[in-house]
Amino acid sequence: MPAPRSAGLIAVVMAVASLLVPLGGVPAQAEERVRREVVRQDPADLTALRKEAEKSAKELEDATKALEKRRAEIAASEKELKSKLTALQELERRLSVMRQPVSQMAELLYQQPLMAGGIVPFLSGSADEKTLRALMDANQIVAVRQQAVEQTSALYKETERLAGEAQELRAGNLLAEAQLAAEVDTLRQRSDKIVKSLTAALVKLGIKIDKVGRAALGCNPLRAATADQYPNGLIPKAMLCPLQQKGFSLRADATIAFVSLNEAYRQRFGKSMCVTDAYRSLAEQQSVYYRRPGFAAVPGRSNHGLGLAVDLCGGVERSGSAEFVWMEKNSKRYGWFHPSWAYSSPFEPWHWEYDPKIDTLL
């Protein structure tokens, strides 16, 4: 291969190597940027941290999809590369075949020279039929040889072109995949740092997490959507995040929003919110339904079974109270609201629900 192409390949490989070095850890600049982004968040502002975690997760998801797409393109490119290499082998075979008659013709000319008994009689006009036939054969040999030389030259050029394209494809694939893999790795570490920061903030505000961190899994907002995969009232305990109020839990994003709401409520009233119910298993829904007919949803249809509803006390359960009015004015800032049906059918001022779309719109 020509020197420029080799030099280009070396440059590409060096670029790839430089990209692969930080895969074991985030580059210093990115590390510092992540640290600043996490530190600058107020630990009490859990909603902002949750949104940052969700944004980071979305970026990670998009980058991962791009990497998968690129890998699919690389697979197609490798298929093309394989085709080129097969064509290259075929050209080499054809070159080998074409060299044989040229060699044979040269050997024939050597074995049957025309100078001694052919050219002189031909020039003097006394050449016989045998001499003329030998000259015609020689002319044919020269013509065929010239054609073979031209075809061989063309095949050599095609071989060189294919080899160059194969080299560029391989180097380009290697570089593109390394770049995307480095980006995905950086985004994954960034996402992990934000989630850890969020978990630490929850612990600081009173969320109980066991020593080995298993409970922290249920408080990861990125797993909130996973809870949707389970039937109403059958969400595993590991998929739920505990509230500050002992014995109660919700889906991760709902808990995070509720803790933020609780902090705002505590600053206003000097006490934490009073909770009488949160997530209800299917069995608990059936129990409540039969104990309080008309005041509980049909088992399997309650938002309590989705980990998205709470029943409150401490004044909020009284419509028109200072606590209830404050909740009406402020709860939506944190994604919580009092559903319209709960004002009359049936009347349940204590019942509040979470909708992650609400605080996204505010």
From TrEMBL:
<protein>
    <recommendedName>
        <fullName>D-alanyl-D-alanine carboxypeptidase-like core domain-containing protein</fullName>
    </recommendedName>
</protein>
<keyword id="KW-0175">Coiled coil</keyword>
<dbReference type="Pfam" id="PF02557">
    <property type="entry name" value="VanY"/>
</dbReference>
<feature type="coiled-coil region">
    <location>
        <begin position="46"/>
        <end position="94"/>
    </location>
</feature>
<feature type="domain" description="D-alanyl-D-alanine carboxypeptidase-like core">
    <location>
        <begin position="249"/>
        <end position="356"/>
    </location>
</feature>
<dbReference type="InterPro" id="IPR009045">
    <property type="entry name" value="Zn_M74/Hedgehog-like"/>
</dbReference>
<dbReference type="InterPro" id="IPR052179">
    <property type="entry name" value="DD-CPase-like"/>
</dbReference>
<dbReference type="InterPro" id="IPR003709">
    <property type="entry name" value="VanY-like_core_dom"/>
</dbReference>
